[in-house]
Amino acid sequence: MIRVVKTSKSRKRHQQQELVFRTWGGRRRGAGRPPKGPRSSEPHKKRSSFRASEPLHVNIRVDRDVGRLRKRHMYKALREATITAAKREDFRIVHVSIQNNHVHFLIEAANKTALAKGMQGFQISAARRINRVISKRSEKRRIGRVFSDRYHVRVLRSPKQTRHALAYVLNNWRRHREGDAAFTNAWVMDPYSTALQFDGWKEMENELVYRKPPPTYDPLVVWLPKSWLLREGWRRHGLIRMDEVPGPLAQVREPAPRIGARPAGSPRA
Q: Which residues contact 118 (CB under 8 A, 6 or more apart)?
């Protein structure tokens, strides 16, 4: 008789697997939108609130491959964009300064929505026209982005801030030493800005007749200021000299420009 002996085997203990749930919320290392190009002009954060009575200093940069903005054909493209923007009453561009790779604005806006829509309209109009003139001159169609990143906004809440912003925008070309070139020696105001439309120059304080631009010059299309700060409040801190260098390089160059000097001519080609 054969006896069958059953041997007991040790039961393998079951180990419960840990459930790992993938999450999409929360901030992770390296998260966020990467900067566009080597220099990101404005982080993506909530815009500061402002009142309709508070002017705004806005600046925006263009892509490097767009080239210099201080040329005749670029000036005309941006001027057409100011005409488009001037059709809005809740978004008013009061002053503009076109530099080589960025543009400064002094703006009055009813609220943040008006500012966003107004800047969007200006950028779309400017981008289309800039791409068009670049394509025409290079004989190679250019499409796509013109402005490299979000625009930067600074709210002006005092007469002193507003006066500094006016000097910074209208004399920004001196900050970048654009007036040092030989062909700009006779310029007393920047023709790539609304400086010729500004009535707060110290040198023109006693002039009875406002200085007119040359007949061949097409000025940028902007609004007259409606806010107290841009209209008269800033004057509490003194009128602005044409040779004033704004920002960290703030100083007054001597001698002062001659009142009889030839006014700024048309933008160069």
A: 85, 88, 90, 91, 107, 109
Distance CA 221, CA 201 (A): 20
Pair 220, 194: CB distance under 8 Å: yes
Who has greater pLDDT, 177 or 116?
A: 116
Q: Please, is 115 exposed, middle or buried when counting C-beta atoms within 10 Å of its C-beta (0-12, 13-18, 19+)? A: buried
Q: Give per-residue pLDDT as tens, 32-76.
A: 555 555 555 455 567 789 999 999 999 999 999 999 999 999 999
Burial label, 24 (beta-carbon count in 10 A; 0-12, 13-18, 19+): exposed
Instruction: Please tell us whether the domain made up of 56-252 is placed in CATH 3.30.70.1290.
Output: yes
If you search the block for the tokens 């490097």, which residue do you land on? 64
Say whether 62 sits in a helix, a strand or coil: strand
3-class SS of residue 215: coil
Q: How far apart are CA 196 and CA 220, in angstroms?
A: 10
**Cα–Cα distance between 184 and 262 in angstroms, integer?**
11
Nearest to 179 by CA among 264, 258, 60, 76: 264
